[in-house]
């Protein structure tokens, strides 16, 4: 599990690329600059690890494009100690970003193969989520709610109501909504029944699937 000067240099270039695309949060840029993304990918893809692209991982899923990870994370406005629910652990790269920001991360994954792999692998790298759950992201994690923020890392055809219900007042839900192409959407909970909605352009994600397999 090597992280070399070469990797660090490539990471710095990646930080410059996403900065040029508009990511401004110093904390988010620092997280992208510090996490060895190449360790989250199959060794055959090492040359691609620090390109600003999504890549395939196990179970027909992808490791998200670094810009997308940074964009979603910036929208969350994570503060140290925030309780964050992540829907779709995937490779664990987004989980690691949230851990570096000091969040208490609760992460749900519905692909058993990925769940097993990532929940063992992340702590080995020193990224400790509060809880890894094998389950259905559409349901959220009611027993741990409310959350300061919720991030969905797969395209959702609609916004699951349980996720809105599990947000704290003032909490933020970032979710890509749509079928083939998704619109990055931010919901801010203003009151028990009141939500403010903002849209941030189109992105492409693998679909968020109901139930587990």
Walk me through the topology.
Blueprint: H1 5-20, H2 26-34, E1 55-56, E2 62-63, H3 66-76, E3 83-87, H4 93-100, E4 104-109, H5 112-125, E5 131-134, E6 147-152, H6 161-165, E7 167-177, E8 182-189, E9 195-203
Parallel strand pairs: 3-4, 3-6, 4-5, 6-7
Antiparallel strand pairs: 1-2, 7-8, 8-9
Helix pairs in contact: 1-2
Quick structural overview:
With 213 residues, this protein is an alpha/beta fold.
Question: Could you describe the 3D structure shown?
Answer:
Its EC number is 2.1.1.77. It is found in: Cytoplasm. It catalyses: [protein]-L-isoaspartate + S-adenosyl-L-methionine = [protein]-L-isoaspartate alpha-methyl ester + S-adenosyl-L-homocysteine. By secondary structure, the protein is α/β, with parallel strands linked by helices. The longest helix is centred in the first third of the chain and has 16 residues. The model has no long low-confidence stretch (mean pLDDT 91). The strands form two sheets. It has a seven-stranded mixed β-sheet. The protein contains six helices and nine strands, in the order H-H-E-E-H-E-H-E-H-E-E-H-E-E-E. It is globular and about 50 Å long.
């Amino acid at each position: 599990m090597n992280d070399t000067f070469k990797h660090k240099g490539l990471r710095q270039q990646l930080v410059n690329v996403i900065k040029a695309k508009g990511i401004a949060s110093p904390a988010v840029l620092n997280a992208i600059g510090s996490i060895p993304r190449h360790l989250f990918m199959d060794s055959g893809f090492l040359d691609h690890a620090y390109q600003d692209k999504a890549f395939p991982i196990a179970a027909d899923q992808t490791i998200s494009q670094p810009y997308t990870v940074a964009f979603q994370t910036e929208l969350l406005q994570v503060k140290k100690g925030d309780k964050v629910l992540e829907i779709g652990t995937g490779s664990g790269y987004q989980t690691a970003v949230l851990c570096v920001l000091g969040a208490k991360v609760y992460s749900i994954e519905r692909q058993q193969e990925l769940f097993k792999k990532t929940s063992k692998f992340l702590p080995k790298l020193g990224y400790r989520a509060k809880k890894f759950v094998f389950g259905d992201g559409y349901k959220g994690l009611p027993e741990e709610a409310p959350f300061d923020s919720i991030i969905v890392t797969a395209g959702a055809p609609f916004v699951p109501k349980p996720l809105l219900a599990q947000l704290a007042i003032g909490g933020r839900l970032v979710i890509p909504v749509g079928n083939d192409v998704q619109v990055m959407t931010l919901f801010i909970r203003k009151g028990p029944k009141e939500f403010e909605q903002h849209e941030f352009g189109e992105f492409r994600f693998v679909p968020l699937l109901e139930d587990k397999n």
